[in-house]
């Protein structure tokens, strides 16, 4: 069995769960359908707001949130309505954590990597430098203790959160010049996300965390010299190619990325078990759908990027080795300073060591 077969199996399981939920709602015969309809008619209607860190038009980041909104509404028969709002319409994109925690927003659609300055350990649930691929990441989250740790940490901030969209590898960065040596990175001002930013700082880069919609103006005006953001198809939409003509791969800092759905704990407690299960099930289905979509559209975007005069580069192995060495320094230092960071890292590291036994035997290189 290869990785594609495994993803197919995972997809089958997730879709099966979703179909099961739909079956419970529709019933297997007229009598059951009538009973379910009566229950639905008595179900309290919930109307919530969901500020997003990503615009609705952005693939996966935004479209994943819009799909979540629609599927929850349909499956709940209109009794659970979670309305998507673009960045800044209700809450600034990097302030959603505080808004949901305080109850100023019922829910939020974002990435836990944006909360690095508040809770460093949460970054492990967004992306991990030199970390797991999609199937391994899913295995750790759902069956290796990752989700339990995520929810335990969020609970201290009056938030319930869960993975709700997944993206394949990202690009590593857009530069105005060809990077012939890592020494040329020193002194650059670069937009960089998550734990990878700490790695770049080890190489002398000055990093900033900037929301997606604000990156292009910063790059165009020279506020930053270089940037990374996401996959080719999303980077293309943001227009980085108009300013920077050198695009680097692989995305060592985000081999797989996850977006999250967040709920204020007090609001979550008011939901029926049915509504909670609808959210859980839709999020799992959304993880599969967004991952498959992300992989399907990258090559077309790369062709368009090349046609716009951009040169695609792959980092030489010696550069990747240097980056990985810097990552090991970063994770060691951060684990020594933060107990939660150390616990989550220990869990992921242990799982990956065990998974490698199976991965080396079961998969083709």
Protein traits:
single chain, D-Maltodextrin-Binding Protein, domain 2, three-stranded mixed beta sheet, 14 helices, 14% strand
Task: Explain what this protein looks like in three dimensions.
This protein has helices at residues 3-26, 30-42, 63-75, 96-102, 134-143, 146-155, 194-202, 212-221, 232-238, 265-269, 273-296, 298-307, 317-337, 339-362, and strands at 46-51, 80-85, 107-110, 159-167, 173-175, 189-191, 206-208, 226-227, 246-249, 257-264, 311-314. Strand 6 (189-191), helix 7 (194-202) and strand 7 (206-208) form a beta-alpha-beta unit. With 365 residues, the chain is of the alpha/beta class. It contains 14 helices and 11 strands. Helix 1 (3-26) runs antiparallel to helix 11, helix 3 (63-75) runs antiparallel to helix 11 (273-296) and helix 7 crosses helix 13 (317-337). The longest helix is centred in the first third of the chain and has 24 residues, at 3-26. The model is unreliable at 1-39 (pLDDT under 50). It folds into 2 domains: 3-32 and 44-168 and 255-296, Bacterial extracellular solute-binding protein, family 7 (D-Maltodextrin-Binding Protein, domain 2, 3-Layer(aba) Sandwich), CATH 3.40.190.170; 173-254 and 298-362, D-Maltodextrin-Binding Protein, domain 2.
């Amino acid at each position: 069995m290869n990785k594609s077969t495994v993803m197919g199996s995972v997809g089958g399981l997730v879709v099966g769960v979703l179909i099961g939920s739909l079956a419970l709602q529709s019933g297997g015969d007229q009598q059951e359908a009538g009973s379910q309809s009566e229950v639905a008619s008595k179900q309290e209607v919930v109307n919530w707001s969901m500020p997003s860190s990503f615009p609705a038009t952005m693939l996966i980041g935004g479209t994943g949130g819009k799909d979540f909104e629609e599927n929850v509404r349909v499956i709940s028969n209109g009794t659970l309505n979670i309305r998507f709002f673009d960045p800044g319409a209700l809450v600034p994109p990097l302030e959603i954590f505080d808004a949901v925690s305080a109850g100023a927003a019922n829910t939020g659609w974002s990435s836990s990597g944006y909360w690095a300055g508040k809770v460093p350990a949460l970054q492990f649930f967004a992306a991990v430098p030199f970390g797991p691929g999609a199937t391994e990441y899913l295995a750790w989250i759902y069956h290796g203790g990752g989700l339990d740790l995520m929810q335990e940490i969020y609970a201290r901030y009056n938030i319930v959160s869960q993975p709700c969209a997944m993206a394949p590898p990202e690009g590593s960065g857009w530069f105005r010049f060809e990077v012939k040596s890592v020494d040329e990175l020193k002194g650059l001002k670069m937009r960089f996300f998550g734990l990878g930013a700490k790695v770049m700082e080890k190489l002398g880069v000055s990093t900033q965390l900037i929301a997606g919609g604000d990156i292009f103006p910063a790059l165009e005006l020279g506020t930053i010299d270089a940037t990374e953001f996401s996959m080719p198809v999303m980077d293309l939409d943001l227009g980085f190619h108009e300013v920077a003509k050198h695009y680097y791969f692989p995305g060592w800092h985000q081999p797989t990325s996850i977006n999250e759905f967040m709920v204020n704990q007090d609001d979550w407690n008011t939901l029926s078990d049915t509504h909670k299960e609808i959210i859980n099930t839709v999020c799992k289905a959304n993880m599969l759908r967004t991952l498959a979509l992300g992989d399907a559209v990258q090559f077309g975007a790369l062709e368009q990027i090349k046609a716009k005069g951009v040169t695609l580069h792959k980092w030489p192995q010696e550069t990747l080795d240097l980056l990985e060495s810097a990552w090991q320094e970063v994770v060691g230092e951060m684990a020594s300073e933060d107990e939660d960071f150390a616990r989550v890292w220990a869990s992921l590291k242990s799982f990956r060591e065990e998974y490698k036994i199976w991965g080396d035997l079961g998969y083709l290189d």
